[in-house]
């Protein structure tokens, strides 16, 4: 039976299993030390491969040079040819720089969401998902003082379906932040909080709840902090928790 789950772990991490199988494998991973170790190893491997791939991305200058070399040469006068070639090169350089800029920001955004999804899965698969275990926000929030370079507020959820399980310090790239775990019914939701200035570009958009890497994700910036809410709960639950966090920070 364990072998059946082992064969599905890679597909599970990629979020390509049907919803029922995702839930079944998720439940099994939390109760099977062998599969937990396998999941953690695969997550670390994915992050290592993704990090290595960043070193070989061709830059805008290289793209512009290649376009200049392959640009066709029209049969016109030398002066016209020079002007035409210069115009084409200028347009290509501008287009290349624009495409490279927006492409890089999109790549950074997707890499960030992928890393957060990995952190969410790895944390829930861990035997000790949080370092401070408490349902009391007045216990969890002070625990982070001195461990991360900023403060934040947490909502009161005692009269809701949400339950605060605790938190831990985490990192996105080199940026330190807070990782909080909330539970709602049988679902686990991760809340990540970082300083906006510590994160790479590409994360400035507040697009509402979106499906990313098989999870529902919401992100926004508020008072210099960047929030991410990610989990397999419903869109309504993710939006509800995000609304409570926004209200707590503004109060």
Can you walk through the features of this model?
The chain has a 7-stranded antiparallel beta sheet with strand order 1-2-3-4-7-6-5, with helices on both faces. The relative contact order is 0.10. It has 251 residues and is α+β, with helices and mostly antiparallel strands. It contains 8 helices and 7 strands; from the N terminus they run ααααααβαββββββα. The longest helix has 48 residues, at 78-125. Helix content is 50%, strand content 20%. The chain has helices at 2-6, 9-13, 19-31, 33-53, 60-70, 78-125, 137-143, 235-250, and strands spanning 132-133, 162-172, 175-184, 187-195, 210-212, 215-222, 225-231.
Brief overview:
By secondary structure, the chain is an alpha+beta fold. The protein has helices at 2-6, 9-13, 19-31, 33-53, 60-70, 78-125, 137-143, 235-250, and strands spanning 132-133, 162-172, 175-184, 187-195, 210-212, 215-222, 225-231.
Ordered list of secondary-structure elements with their pairings:
Elements: H1 2-6, H2 9-13, H3 19-31, H4 33-53, H5 60-70, H6 78-125, E1 132-133, H7 137-143, E2 162-172, E3 175-184, E4 187-195, E5 210-212, E6 215-222, E7 225-231, H8 235-250
Antiparallel strand pairs: 1-2, 2-3, 3-4, 4-7, 5-6, 6-7
Helix pairs in contact: 3-4, 4-6, 5-6
Features:
251 residues; seven-stranded antiparallel beta sheet; alpha+beta
Q: How much strand?
A: 15-25%
Total count of helical runs of at least 4 residues? 8
Neighbour order of strands in the largest sheet: 1-2-3-4-7-6-5
Tell me, briefly, the overall form: globular
Q: How much is the average pLDDT?
A: 79
Write the H/E string, N to C: HHHHHHEHEEEEEEH
Helix content, binned percent: 40-55%
Q: Multimeric state of these chains? A: single chain
Ranges where pLDDT stays below 50 over 5 or more residues in a row are: 97-103
| Cα Rg | 23 Å
Structural class: alpha+beta
Main pleated sheet: 7 strands, antiparallel
Total E-strand runs: 7
Span of the ends, CA to CA:
51 Å
């Amino acid at each position: 039976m364990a072998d059946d789950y082992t064969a599905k772990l890679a597909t599970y991490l990629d979020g390509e299993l049907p919803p029922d199988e995702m839930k079944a494998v998720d439940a099994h991973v939390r109760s099977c030390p062998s599969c937990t170790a396998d999941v953690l190893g695969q997550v670390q491997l994915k992050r290592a491969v993704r990090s290595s791939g960043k070193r070989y991305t061709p830059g805008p200058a290289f793209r512009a040079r290649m376009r200049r070399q392959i640009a066709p040469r029209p049969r016109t006068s030398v002066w016209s040819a020079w002007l035409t070639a210069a115009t084409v090169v200028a347009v290509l350089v501008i287009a290349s720089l624009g495409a490279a800029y927006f492409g890089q920001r999109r790549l950074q955004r997707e890499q960030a969401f992928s890393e957060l999804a990995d952190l969410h899965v790895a944390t829930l698969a861990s035997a000790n998902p949080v370092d401070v275990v408490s349902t009391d926000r007045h216990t969890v929030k002070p625990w982070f003082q001195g461990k991360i370079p900023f403060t934040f507020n947490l909502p009161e959820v005692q009269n809701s379906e949400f339950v605060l399980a605790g938190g831990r310090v985490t990192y996105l790239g080199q940026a330190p932040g807070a990782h909080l775990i909330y539970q709602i019914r049988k679902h686990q939701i991760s809340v990540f909080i970082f300083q906006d200035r510590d994160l790479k570009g590409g994360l400035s958009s507040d697009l509402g709840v979106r499906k990313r890497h098989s999870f529902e994700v919401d992100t926004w910036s508020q008072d210099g902090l960047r929030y991410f809410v990610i989990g397999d709960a419903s869109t309504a639950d993710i939006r509800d928790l995000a609304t409570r966090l926004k209200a707590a920070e503004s109060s």
